[in-house]
Each structure stands twice: as C-alpha cells, then as structure tokens.
Specification:
Serine Threonine Protein Phosphatase 5, Tetratricopeptide repeat; single chain; mainly alpha; elongated
Length: 403
C-alpha cells in the first residue's frame, strides 16, 4: 500500500492501480488492498469525465474489502459516498447510519447523512444534520455549501445566499456556490443577476451543461430579442451535448422542450421544433406545456384532429392548465357540433387563470344575445385585465350596446 500511495502522490495513478492489482493477485485476502484500490477509483471518478465506470469499480472493491474485514470504518464511509454519487441515497443512508451507530466510530457524518436525506427528499432531516455540522465547523466550505443547497431546496433563498456566499469566500473555485446563488436569484425573478452567477460558475467549470442550461433560461427570461438569440445559442450547445452523452438526459431532458418552443415560432423551423418536442416527451419532459406546444404545431400544419388530441393530452397531464383549455375552446368553437363544449372550455380557462383576458372577451361576445348580464360581466373583466388589449375597443363597443 505504501508504494501505491507514493505513486499516487507522484500522479502516477495508472501505475499505482496496476501495483495494487498485482498485489491483490498475490494477497487475495488483503482487505486494505481492495480498500486502497477503491479509494483510487473513487478519486478518479471525482476528477470528472465518465465517472460511472470508476464509481462502480470503487463500489465493488469497497464491498470486497468490507467482506474481508468489516472493521474498515473509512471504507464503509467511502462506500456510502460512492453509493450517493451513484444516485443510490437509500443504500448510502443505510451505510452512514450503520457507521454512526458503531461504538468504535468517532468521526463526523452529519454532512454525509444530510446529503443522503436530502437526496431522499427529507430536506428538514437534512437541515438538522447540516445545522449540527455548522455548529461544529461553521467555516468549512464543504459544510457551508451543503447547508446552502439544502436551504435553497427549502426555498429559504435568503439563508441559502448567506451560506453560499460564505462558502465561495472560503473557496473561490467552488462553482456550485455560484450556481445555487444564481438559482436562488432566478427563483425570485432576478434573471439578470442569476445569469451573471451562471456565467461566473461556467468560468470555473466550462463543461458543466447544467450551468449552461440555466444560463439559457435566464437569458430567455429577459424577454428581449438579444436575450432570445443568446438563449437559443446556449440551448443548442446543451442539446448537442445531450445528443452526444445520453447520461445528461436525466437532468437536461427539458432542453428539448425549451429549444423546441423557441423554434416553433419560425415557419422554417417547424419540423425541427416538432422533433425537439417529441424528444422531450420521449425522455420525460412530457408536461402539459409540451403537449400544448405540439398541439399548436399540429394546428399550424392544418391537422385539427391531432391538435385536439395533443391539447387533451395536456389536460390529462394537468387538469388545471388554462392554456390547454383555451386552445381546445378555440378549436371547438369553430365547429357547430362542438360549440357548446368550446364554451365550457372557455369558462374553465377563465376560472383556472384569473389573469387570462382573452376568454372573457370571447365569452362576452358569445353571451351578448343570450345573457346580457353574463356578457357585461365578461366584457368588464376583459377591460380590467387588458385595458389596452387588442380587443379593448370591441369590448367597449359591446358594453355600450349591452346597457
């Protein structure tokens, strides 16, 4: 083991691994040899690149080490770390809790326990562990970062920012501290500030496409022509990366929906937009918004039947999606056989989204000959919501005639 450690310190990692593998052949029951090999595989995974293979090799070797010598406490801790990195938080938590309960273990596990609990959705439990860690070591950037991320998940953005800022002050290369400050700003509508944080995080970690995705989101949220152009370029980079590395789909599938929605407003890109949206559905970004966008593209192409089917799928995904009800209403109102259904969809859209003006004008126009009281109510609501809207003049004319 001493030779392997020396080789590793000299950055001769491959040679160190070969040395340990040869040693294991000679001493197949050497538990510490397996643990040492696992440590090296784990560190290789942490460096970046394709981490899946070295993580799995680390897991296998830690298990072998522990089967030979269950008293290797650090090996058990690092096994939990590897399991957490492999998105197996339940198994990781079991390892950490088992270790914490041992009378011969005197180390600190609050950060690891907190991270496993947070990965399982227990944010309050995670925060309890992180607060213990902060009391013990409140200047440790690793502790500050973990606690800051948990407070972000809790939507306590001010406390998250405080901790994340302190973490970054302790280690200016800590890109996740910048990233989560950006996420906190984005969540509170401060899109320009969020974008600046994402750019700074990317300066530290240029190949992180999750950072780039959120940079694109912040640029798109600026609602400017320049922001849209820049967002599309960033979405293209992210989507191209996902095309090449399917492991990114787990966290970045939504990029296909985002890019597809931006492409759908250009006639020459309708087919590309539809392809993106279908990819989004396939990889799991199949929310109601995706089906509404697909429905709009089908309608653009003249396929009313397919459009209606897509809008109904959107409502099946989210029964409170006002835009899907509105879209179905517009389709149904154009057919005498489905006009009554269209009116019901309009009323539902207005009920689901009190800020949506358009259904109120349409309902006013529909009810003007049937129920003057209802018509007046809807015209007044439209003018309140959209006093300068495209149908404001018509709504005022209708109101005058309804007196």
């Amino acid at each position: 083991m001493r030779i392997a450690r020396l080789l590793e310190r000299q950055t001769k990692v491959d040679e160190a691994i070969r040395h340990l593998e040869q040693a294991i052949k000679h001493y197949p029951k050497g538990a510490e040899l397996y643990a040492g090999l696992a440590d090296m595989k784990r560190r290789i995974a942490q460096i970046g690149g394709n981490a899946a293979k070295p993580l799995e090799e680390a897991r296998v070797n830690y298990l072998k080490a522990l089967s030979l010598d269950p008293s290797l406490l650090d090996a058990r801790k690092q096994l939990g770390v590897v399991l957490l990195a492999q998105s197996k938080p339940k198994k990781a938590l079991a390892q950490f809790e088992s270790l914490a309960g041992r009378p011969d273990f005197h180390g600190m596990l609050d950060v690891e326990l907190g991270q496993a609990k947070q990965a399982l959705g227990d944010v309050d439990g995670a925060l309890a562990n992180f607060e213990k860690a902060l009391k013990r070591d409140g200047k440790n950037e690793r502790v500050l970062l973990a606690a800051g991320i948990a407070y972000f998940a809790k939507k306590d953005y001010e406390q998250a920012r405080t901790l994340l800022k302190r973490a970054h002050e302790r280690d200016i290369d800590l890109s996740p501290a910048l990233y989560y400050q950006g996420r906190a700003d984005f969540a509170e509508g401060m899109h320009e500030s969020a974008g600046n944080f994402f750019k700074r995080a990317l300066e530290e970690e240029k190949s992180n496409f999750e950072y780039r995705y959120w940079l694109a989101r912040s640029l798109e949220a600026s609602k400017t022509a320049a922001g849209d152009r820049a967002a599309r370029l960033e979405y293209n980079l992210v989507a191209n990366a996902v095309d090449k590395d399917k492991r990114l789909l787990k966290t970045l599938c939504d990029v296909y929906y985002r890019r597809g929605r931006m492409r759908m407003y250009e006639l020459t890109l309708w087919n590309a937009a539809k392809a993106d949206l279908k990819r989004a559905v396939k990889c799991g970004a199949d929310g109601a918004d995706t089906y509404v966008a697909l429905g709009q593209l089908s309608l653009n192409g003249g396929d009313r039947v397919q459009a209606a089917a897509q809008y109904k799928l959107a409502i099946a995904k989210d029964g409170k999606h006002a835009q899907a009800h509105m879209a179905l209403a517009l389709l149904s109102l154009n057919d005498r056989k489905t006009r009554a259904t269209g009116i019901r969809y309009l009323e539902k859209a207005a009920e689901l989204d009190p800020t949506l003006a358009d259904p109120h004008y349409r309902l006013c126009a529909i009810y003007k000959d049937k129920s003057r009281a209802k018509a007046r109510k809807h015209c007044k609501t439209y003018l309140k919501l959209a006093p300068d809207g495209g149908m404001a003049r018509d709504a005022k004319d209708l109101l005058r005639n309804l007196k």
